[in-house]
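Reader question, answered in our methods column.
A reader sent in the components of a multi-part assembly and asked whether the whole thing could be modeled at once rather than chain by chain. We filled in our standard form and ran it. Here is what they sent:
COMPLEX SIZE: two components
ENTRIES:
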Amino acid sequence: MQHSIQQVSIALAQVNFKVGDIDGNLERISMAVADAKAQHHDSDRPLMVVFSELAITGYPPEDLLLRPSLQHRVEASLQEVAKLSADVAIVLGYPWHQDGKLFNMAGVWSQGEQIARYAKRFLPNYQVFDEQRYFTAGADTCVFDWQGHKLGLTVCEDIWHEQPIAESKAAEAELIININASPFHLGKLQQRRELLSNHAQRHQLPIVYVNQVGGQDELVFDGASFVVDSAGELVMSAPEHESTVSLVDFDSSLNVQVKQTVLAKSELASIYDTLVLGVRDYIEKNGFKGIVLGLSGGIDSALTLAIAVDAIGKDRVEAVMMPFKYTSSMSMEDAKLEADALGVSYKVLPIEPMYDAFMLTLEDEFAGLARDTTEENLQARCRGVMLMAISNKKGYMVLTTGNKSEMAVGYATLYGDMVGGYSALKDVYKTIVFQLSRYRNELATSQGEAEIIPERVITRPPSAELAPDQIDEDSLPPYDDLDQILEFYIEGDLSVDAIIAKGFASDDVKRVTRLVDLSEYKRRQAPVGVRMTARGFGRDRRYPITNGWKAGS
Amino acid sequence: MQHSIQQVSIALAQVNFKVGDIDGNLERISMAVADAKAQHHDSDRPLMVVFSELAITGYPPEDLLLRPSLQHRVEASLQEVAKLSADVAIVLGYPWHQDGKLFNMAGVWSQGEQIARYAKRFLPNYQVFDEQRYFTAGADTCVFDWQGHKLGLTVCEDIWHEQPIAESKAAEAELIININASPFHLGKLQQRRELLSNHAQRHQLPIVYVNQVGGQDELVFDGASFVVDSAGELVMSAPEHESTVSLVDFDSSLNVQVKQTVLAKSELASIYDTLVLGVRDYIEKNGFKGIVLGLSGGIDSALTLAIAVDAIGKDRVEAVMMPFKYTSSMSMEDAKLEADALGVSYKVLPIEPMYDAFMLTLEDEFAGLARDTTEENLQARCRGVMLMAISNKKGYMVLTTGNKSEMAVGYATLYGDMVGGYSALKDVYKTIVFQLSRYRNELATSQGEAEIIPERVITRPPSAELAPDQIDEDSLPPYDDLDQILEFYIEGDLSVDAIIAKGFASDDVKRVTRLVDLSEYKRRQAPVGVRMTARGFGRDRRYPITNGWKAGS
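And here is the structure of the entire assembly that came back:
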């Protein structure tokens, strides 16, 4: 069968780039182009492969963008991109210096030459984004001709504004290509699709949305590239959290010929897979041999262990139980059950000897001073030092096990349970930790496997076991309340009075928010970890440590 | 004697504000107004008191600016400012919401009312500054009438550009008021004065430059407010590093009537005083009882101890020597000499018992694995845990002793010698550590006191003493070379090839720059510390940890 020249194929290349690794990224681009060509069986139909924002450098390159040698490295790589485009059109993003300014550029190559380029016009400078630190905003719309069609080109944030798409439409674009580096947070996928669906409908323009995938320090890019047609309907969706090249055939009116959508993941699946991808990419991209973590018998470390194993496999994970006199026998049993269920290496290393050695040496120094949290912190720090020694000796990274609720109120010991290179649950509230644990168990049982996390670990009251019969809720409101207060304060920026007005106990709100403010110094020294809310404790939230803000209205 | 109404007095109020502490800052403003009035003896001469940028919130408020309750707090405080202005004009900065946008505003009050206001036009979004994260740029020039004079109003960065001053001149301004929050870094004072002198001369306009003073986390504002006349000459300068209110009398042509300048400090004095102020304000604004630090017998901890004592006094400082078998007797002697010279409390707490307890417990875990840096790190971590225990028990903050050269190449142990709430030397290269030590000794001897830092601590080869006969330069280039390579790489963003081309050994450059890149994860968990170069390891340098950038051209 003979196609008209106006029928085209567009491949959405959802690639896991590595920041700064220009040569490696070029190789990844080249492989994705080959993949697209291999899927493309109709030689009469022109093919375009679309990559994500700043594909050449990976996103976000941060201050690597300030290096003077960036430009000639990018130039050299674009010459290779041009060569790759001999028989296929390529769209991708790259940083570009011109007239003493740096632009966040999207380029189009065809038949060995760049045929169009566009400088991003809306530069996000909020949340985790610092684009105005580096880039100058572009001023022009870009609608280019390809195979008899007029295509509009935009970069990420541009599509969240009205102007670029409206001006592309006015310039007779028939379809909009939007290249992205859009990190995951809860609810973001729906947000993107609704917004683009509305845009498409209003302007009667199909939109091809390509996002990168993979973990880069605290950010996890979830991929989930998609196409909406001119009626705003989702006609193609790529999987979440996976590197893929998805070929889409368009008819001569640029309608998608075969609808191909995958079901969106459930919220919990989506969070869990984000955590796994974040951990995996941090480990693999930084070249660690494996993961070592402290298993306490509690739920946070149990869930973190499951994530570690799902990320890099049981053979590269070592779990260490470090009991002290306050460790219950139940915790000892549960930790072993968890390690056995996942099949990881498991060690028991008691901390009494070093704890006692410290206390003895400090006897004079502490003479006459009452017992307080110092002794609890000392236990946590003996564990931290032990994990770091194993890490140093074996090249395994310590994966930290604390959750967002703890990190928020400072219920974590600096240089103790906070040691580690990366944190899986840093942005996961405790109430979600419970849900994810049940989710992971159900995943196991639905596949005919045994539960990973013993039921009683999920149901018994959480305890740090740093003092006799201690439980978390002795000194904190119940987690259901705590997490809501935290969310209002941290993610909603509400004042203390406004949170109290929502129906929480005044003392609880004052105490919790005060703890959040007082703990800023701890968070500043915490390992990076997966961001999964719209405000994580990383580049997202820039707070003064020295801070005289008083609670109130 | 009767003055014409056009003769005026302007007080430069160089105040140490506290970020977020709106009520406290209002109190500080009120006290400075009272101080200015007390100095002002000529009731016929109208008085204006000029404060710094964002005086109401302190600078930088960071994400406190995102709180919805900011606006009504600022509103309430501005009502108080209006009251204060009954008999004196007041100029100060504050954040202000209008039409859904936030502006970095400067206001003028007189006779109980706001008579002018101006929104900052140039918003710095580089180095440590994130102003475009929060603020919208203003569009208008502000020249206001006061006592028969026309005064132009600008905020900080505005004066570094041509437009605001040129437009003020065109609008017939006779004098420019420029309110600032300009942090110290090496050479900044000269830079400011030269720039403003040129501007003043070119536009034939005197400029009143007011800067805040004091430490706020990593930033130290050095004050050093000044006035240049319309010929560009420095006719008034306020002291560096001190809270002051300086009254300046102007004649009816707005010429300064009596020249009053203080000598600029030497470079070393200026650095040293910046470090002292940074430490003092971190301790006092955060309410710590005192400082505890580890004294090793080496030069970094010796200098840090001197800074601590100069910051908060010897009675609130405790020094701890934690010897191990590799600690030389010379180090033991020198540490004691240093503590005695400054008169601080001094303890000796050996780390053998806990080190041995860890190694014994880890015996099976480490079986068959060779001795490596793990054992060195373990020593450093035993010391870190000990210092933190003392810190927790006594409410003393651990002051970290590492320098910039070490932090750059990662010659520091995470959770070991890196523990602490604040770091004095974080942005001070080792070569400057030597110079500052001599400077501090000369200061002592010039005042007839004994040397603080024993000569041989300055002259003997630096060693971490973590292994037998170890010295730093065994594994690093000499510090003179190292620091230059680091400065080219970190502050100059030069490529490896470009640094080699400057004449350094290729192997050294490759090794050092590689170490810098590999150590990013450590720096991310380091305590905040004084910034004193144009690129410190804080908000200033935003680097990916996961980073595939390869050395080369």
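What stands out: The radius of gyration of chain B is 26 Å. Chain B has a mean pLDDT of 96.
Send us your own complexes using the same form.
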